[in-house]
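Handout, tutorial session.
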Amino acid sequence: QVTLMESGGGLVQAGGSLGLSCAASGSIYSINAMGWYRQAPGNQRELVAIITSEGSADYGDSVKDRFTISRDNAKNTVTLQMNSLKPEDTAVYYCKADVKNTRWDYFGAYWGQGTQVTVSS
């Protein structure tokens, strides 16, 4: 019912920058929080950043002051600007959105397929 399409992953050297984008499409009445999570091999999926529809943002401790999340409510998109990247930021990054399909539904969580970010030392 809802598709999240991520783009922008890739390979970057340590200290570099990279931007990720995610666009939600499909049966969407409204979107509450949108965010980014990441999962490195052998690790659990962790929160990177999350932003409400009002624009209030929160970040994982390891990315504070380096990453910035933003969203465009009219376009149902969320972006993540990643600066001062470190090798430990290497992971698959997943977009997540809490979506209400109709005015009568509860919010449900939808995930993107993930995009690889690799930071070389």
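The second record follows below. Compare its token runs with those of the first.
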Amino acid sequence: QVQLVESGGGLVQAGGSLRLSCAASIGTFNSYAMGWFRQAPGKEREFVARISRSGRVTAYGNSAKGRFTISRDTAKNTGYLAMSNLKPEDTAVYHCAAQLDGSVEYDYWGQGTQVTVSS
């Protein structure tokens, strides 16, 4: 069974940094692109970032550009989201997701980790 487990969330002051991790129990980690999404209370889920299977291609949502960096470590079956210059509006539950090559949607989702940014 595929599992994605996020960690690294917490409470941070505005302007601070956090690095989220997504540990994947996937047999062939590099068969999956990985994405990060977030959802704040009362709001729709928002795309944050995506990284290709190889790690060579990345994409970011407007809110993440210039402040967040997505990466992956195939040897550790782990994806990362480094966030800097955090703002109160970044407060949300952050989820990682895995997308098998050829899938239209993301195939697996983690339970999420809470990020709270205080002003």
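Points raised in discussion: The two ends are 40 Å apart (CA to CA).
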